[in-house]
């Protein structure tokens, strides 16, 4: 049986906002908070070797998970790993090439999808669970621990394209043509993701986030089938396995489609992109669901008055018991660390 977050996690602002709105401060963390903008990350990454060596080294991965918490007053740690370890566990070759991003061996036919395994995922990823166990005892009592996986559509785009692609054309084509191998690929990713998330919770994470970074690729009909449906199956799947921790859905770029996203799937919060207007969120979304976001990450490059005004705009319109302060996407490599302190100070100041 999987452990519950409720008793030990009370008093953590992130868990409280996600469960009963009893938080006494606005929870704040940011996507990709452990990463290359931190010099201490770059140092550990060098010691580890490659990015993947770091992901599979439970001591060093725990160290980098904790690095942002040492610098900043944050309400959550996010497990250091990547969404692409799932395709690797399923049998794809994976590498990260400096300045080029991920390279995945391609999957574009029924035979190639059939060859992917869904057994033994958790065993393959056991170093990640060791990382979770190493991090957990090091966290301050007010800090929540977030685990994650990629959503099937986003992960599938990397598997079909062989890495990052500007338009995800081949993946979209497979979805629009209704290729049977594509449906099977999505199903297999659902199965593997359920096992992976359950194992993360068993190891000690207290909140889960599902990243569908390329959700906006999909028009209505395909969005229902390849964004909402597989994510709903993952959430139902982990619930059936006894997982009762809160789940945050992050489908970047859905715009007004965020309403359907939170209607269709039982999340405890959804993350939203920077382009979603705050007034619209305040009017249409926060009464339905807790919202996470959505400061533009470039404001952490620019800082100053623009940053302060944008923080004020978000904080003043979204109530703290319905909002998790975060960015609309991951923090950028070129971020100026001073601006992160400015951002956090501004959130606390405007909340009084
Ligand atoms: O701090 C955290 O948020 C936790 C760790 C984390 C990473 N990737 C570490 C990482 C998380 C949650 C992710 C999610 C992830 N990975 C997503 C979804 C979120 C998003 O950003 O849209 C995606 C699409 C990936 C796939 C991925 N990983 C790409 C496309 C790249 C290359 C681009 C880049 O930023 O270099 C990565 C590499 C990666 N994942 C790095 C980190 C810290 C940089 C690798 C390095 O150290 O060289």
Explain what you see:
The chain is α/β, with parallel strands linked by helices and 352 residues long. The protein has one domain: TIM Barrel. Helix content is 50%, strand content 12%. The chain has helices at residues 6-9, 13-19, 39-48, 51-55, 58-71, 85-89, 110-115, 121-124, 126-135, 152-161, 169-176, 180-203, 220-240, 258-264, 278-285, 299-302, 304-317, 337-351, and strands spanning 76-78, 94-97, 101-104, 144-150, 207-212, 247-251, 269-271, 290-295, 323-327. The strands form two sheets. Strands 1-4-5-6-7-8-9 form a seven-stranded parallel β-sheet, with helices on both faces. The protein has a two-stranded antiparallel sheet with strand order 2-3. Helix 15 (278-285) links the parallel strand 7 (269-271) and strand 8. The protein is globular. The termini are far apart. Coproporphyrinogen III binds at residues 31-36, 45, 51, 78, 80-84, 96, 101-102, 148, 150, 154, 164, 211, 213, 330.
* Structural shape: globular
The largest sheet has its strands arranged as: 1-4-5-6-7-8-9
Number of helices: 18
CATH architecture: Alpha-Beta Barrel
Mean pLDDT: 96
Biggest sheet descriptor = 7 strands, parallel
| Unreliable segments of 5+ consecutive residues | none
| SS-derived structural category | alpha/beta
CATH C-level class = Alpha Beta
Order of helices and strands: HHHHHEHEEHHHEHHHEHEHEHEHHEH
The number of distinct structural domains comes to 1
Quote the distance from N terminus to C terminus.
41 Å
- How many extended strands? 9
Percent of residues in helices comes to: 40-55%
């Amino acid at each position: 049986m999987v452990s519950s977050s409720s008793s030990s996690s009370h008093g953590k602002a992130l868990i409280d906002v996600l469960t009963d709105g009893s938080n006494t401060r606005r929870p704040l963390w940011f996507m990709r908070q452990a990463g290359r903008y931190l010099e201490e990350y770059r140092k550990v990454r060098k010691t580890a070797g490659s990015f993947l060596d770091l992901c599979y080294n439970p001591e060093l991965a725990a160290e980098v998970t904790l690095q942002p918490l040492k610098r900043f007053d944050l309400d959550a740690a996010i497990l250091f790993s990547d969404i692409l370890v799932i395709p690797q566990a399923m049998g794809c070759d994976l590498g990260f090439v400096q300045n080029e991003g991920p390279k995945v061996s391609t999957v574009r036919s029924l035979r190639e999808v059939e060859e992917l395994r869904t057994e033994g995922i958790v065993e393959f990823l056991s170093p990640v669970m060791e990382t979770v166990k190493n991090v957990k005892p090091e966290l301050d009592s007010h800090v929540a621990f977030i685990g994650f996986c990629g959503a099937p559509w986003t992960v599938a785009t990397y598997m079909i394209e062989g890495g990052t692609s500007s338009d995800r054309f081949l993946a979209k084509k497979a979805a629009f043509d209704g290729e049977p191998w594509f449906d099977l690929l999505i199903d297999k990713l659902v199965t593997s993701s359920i096992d992976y998330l359950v194992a993360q919770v068993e190891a000690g994470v207290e909140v889960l986030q599902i990243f569908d970074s390329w959700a906006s690729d999909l028009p209505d009909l395909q969005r229902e089938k390849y964004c909402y449906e597989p994510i709903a199956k993952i959430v139902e799947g982990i619930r059936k396995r006894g997982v009762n921790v809160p789940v945050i859905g992050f489908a970047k770029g859905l715009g007004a489609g965020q309403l359907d996203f939170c209607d269709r799937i039982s999340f405890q919060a959804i993350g939203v992109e920077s382009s979603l207007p705050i007034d619209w969120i305040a009017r249409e979304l926060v009464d339905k669901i807790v919202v996470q976001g959505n400061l533009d990450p470039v404001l952490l490059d620019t800082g100053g008055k623009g940053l302060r005004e944008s923080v004020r705009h978000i904080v003043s319109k979204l109530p703290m018991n319905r909002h998790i302060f975060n960015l609309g996407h991951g923090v950028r490599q070129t971020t100026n660390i001073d601006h992160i302190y400015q951002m956090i100070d501004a959130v606390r100041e405007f909340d009084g």
